[in-house]
Amino acid sequence: MLNVFARSSVSRVTDPVGAWLVRCGLTPNVVTVVGTTGTVLAALWFFPRGQLFVGTLVVTLFVLFDLLDGAMARAAGRGTPFGAVLDASCDRIADGALFGALAWWCFTGADNRPLAAAALVCLVAAQVISYVKARAEASGLSADGGLVERAERFIIALVGAGLSGLGVPWALDVALWLLAALSVATVVQRLVAVARSARESANGG
Predict the structure, then answer these.
(1) Residue 69 among known ligand-binding residues
(2) Of 10-24, 131-145, 167-181, highest mean pLDDT
(3) Residues 108, 112, 117, 119, Cα dihedral to 10°
(4) Annotated binding residue 30
(5) Does the pLDDT value for residue 127 go beyond 90?
(6) DSSP of the chain, one letter per residue?
(7) How confident is the model over 95-113, as pLDDT tens digits?
(8) Is residue 87 a known part of a binding site?
(9) Per the annotation, does 31 bind a ligand?
(10) What is the pTM of this model?
(11) With contact defined as beta carbons under 8 Å apart, do 52 and 46 qualify?
């Protein structure tokens, strides 16, 4: 949802940076891998140790790399099929690391099994949301949209983690339970969208 409304505004900032990185000789694939590696390492290092605020800052820094690889591809005037697959695969790895690390902290640091369960629901739902779209598109169907796409998932989770790291009570609890509910709803929304697309395709629409 946020992607639709914010993409043009974000592009005005990221496109010049992406063009500069291309002129420096970097490729979108390198930026994708660096951003994902940094996100994974930061999430798995800081969050399980209970360093939620610092972890949020560092993860957010590396997540911004995800905005730059697309800008670099546009600046270079082309994207590649491999780059698209690499980007999607790295997104799933980063999603898993973020919510896995938060679940780890909920189990061990906070000793809060219900909250850990919410984090795991977020992790699984994030993978399913993306898989439904990818599988639908591979079948020639449409499964766009939904309440929470990747941008919303990261914003809600990181805001909750950051505020919790600053000592705001229940911030992470509210964020993860809200995100779990919205993510499950998004899975249902996308499946409904696929069913509608399949009916339209069968009817020649």
Answers:
(1) yes
(2) 167-181
(3) -70
(4) yes
(5) yes
(6) -HHHHHHHHHHHHHHHHHHHHHHTT--HHHHHHHHHHHHHHHHHHHGGGT-HHHHHHHHHHHHTHHHHHHHHHHHHT---HHHHHHHHHHHHHHHHHHHHHHHHHHHHTS--HHHHHHHHHHHHHHHHHHHHHHHHHHTT------S--HHHHHHHHHHHHHHHHTT-TTHHHHHHHHHHHHHHHHHHHHHHHHHHHHHHHHTT-
(7) 999 999 999 999 999 999 9
(8) yes
(9) yes
(10) 0.89
(11) yes
Of 2.60.40.10, 1.20.210.10, 1.20.120.1760, 1.10.10.10, which CATH number belongs to 4-199? 1.20.120.1760
pLDDT of residue 7: 53
Length of the chain counted residue by residue: 205
> Could you read off the pLDDT of 32-53 as tens digits, one per residue?
899 999 999 999 999 999 999 9
Q: Among candidates 197, 182, 188, 115, which has minimal Cα distance to 151?
A: 182
- Active-site positions? 91
Q: Tell me the C-alpha distance between 128 and 134, whole Å.
A: 10
User: Residue type for 123, please?
Assistant: L
Task: Write out the two tokens for 163.
Answer: 């505020």
